[in-house]
Design brief:
The complex is a heterodimer of chains A (112) and B (225).
Chain A: H1 22-43, H2 50-70, H3 78-104
Helix pairs in contact in A: 1-2
Chain B: H1 16-51, H2 53-60, H3 65-90, H4 94-124, H5 141-145, H6 149-186, H7 196-220
Classes of the chains: A mainly alpha (112), B mainly alpha (225).
Chain lengths: 112, 225
């Protein structure tokens, strides 16, 4: 299809899509690979409880890159962003409230 | 091949733009549901990891983190080839769609192949939960840290098989979907104006990649240091 068709009434020129350049995809891919290396490297050091924090931080960064660029949410409308965010907010509720319950009951290692 | 007047626009949509936005939104609602679906398992993992911290760390040593890392790389490669397939569709190149999708299927199959090797090893070492489960701690001190490590490590492996199994099931469903999309792309059914099916199949594939991005450090790397 021609990209610069002069405006004509009642002609649907199709979705106004943002076509992402393959170079950007390769850049995101490289970032994901570097972050994978970092997560393996970080796991080799003992940061105590912070090992989990670092691992989840890196994984969340990778997930954000995939969602924003590979899944095009960076260029999506507000409604899509809202749905994506709501999925993760509800996941947050699930884990946060469940864990706050378990943590506040003082279960220890050898319980049960 | 299709012009904007006839072809892909379904009668219940006013414009192609509206049709495309509806398809994308619908897929994201499905993915939000998928987040909750996997979320139940991640929540269970969080609880048991907290309760049986030492057992989980020790049990994690029984996984081969190198195979996990290779599979992470393979899956990220497959996300790239999937993104390039969607790009080929956005610029209206049907044959390229098919080629990139074939690459995605190949990488997905390699991932599943590695998974088969890993599962086989767990069967051989009696690490599959059930009557034949027999746990040998990785570290001598592990049994002293948790006298019930046999039971608690079995919970770790139950979660390992549930989480990676559900993830693998998603890939097993995804591969035929990809093959179908590749076939349709090859036949020239998609154009720069209309390629929502390939776009939303891509969303599904990337989502499956994201699940693995979290599974890898949480299952393979927790006892690494």
């Amino acid at each position: 299809m021609a990209e610069h068709t002069p405006h004509a009434d009642a002609v649907d020129l199709g979705p106004h899509e943002h076509v992402v350049s393959p170079k950007l995809y390769v850049g995101i891919f490289a970032a994901l690979m570097v972050l994978t290396y970092l997560t393996v490297e970080a796991a080799g050091h003992d940061f105590g409880i912070f090992n989990t924090v670092v691992a989840l931080g890196i994984a969340s960064t990778k997930a954000l890159l995939v969602i924003a660029f590979f899944m095009h949410v960076r260029w999506a409308g507000k409604l899509v962003v809202l749905v994506v965010a709501s999925g993760f907010v509800w996941l947050g509720f699930l884990i946060l409230i469940t864990m706050s319950d378990y943590l506040s009951r003082g279960f220890s290692l050898v319980t049960g | 091949m299709s012009d904007a007047h006839a072809g892909p626009l379904r009668h219940h949509f006013a414009t192609l733009q509206q049709q495309k936005e509806s398809a994308t939104l619908g897929m994201w609602v499905f993915i939000a549901q998928e987040i909750m679906f996997f979320g139940g398992l991640f929540g269970t993992y969080a609880i048991y990891r907290y309760l049986y911290y030492a057992a989980f760390e020790d049990a994690s040593h029984h996984l081969d983190w190198k195979l996990g890392a290779i599979n992470t790389g393979v899956l990220i490669c497959s996300s790239l080839t999937m993104a390039l397939a969607v790009h080929a569709a956005a610029v209206g190149k049907g044959k390229q769609i098919a080629a990139w999708i074939a690459a995605t299927i190949l990488l997905g199959s390699i991932f599943l192949g590695v998974k088969v090797v890993e599962y086989k090893e767990k069967f051989d070492h009696h690490l599959v939960p059930g009557p034949k489960f027999h746990y040998v701690p990785h570290a001598e001190a592990a049994r002293a840290a948790d006298p019930e490590i046999d039971r608690h490590s079995q919970i770790y492996f139950s979660l390992y098989f549930m989480m990676t199994g559900l993830h693998a099931l998603h890939m097993i469903i995804g591969i035929p979907l990809l093959a179908w999309m590749g076939w349709r792309g090859w036949r020239g059914e998609f154009s720069a104006l209309y390629h929502s099916p390939i776009e939303i199949t891509g969303l599904y594939w990337h989502f499956v990649d994201i699940v693995w991005i979290f599974l890898f450090p949480l299952l393979y790397l927790i006892g690494h240091h």
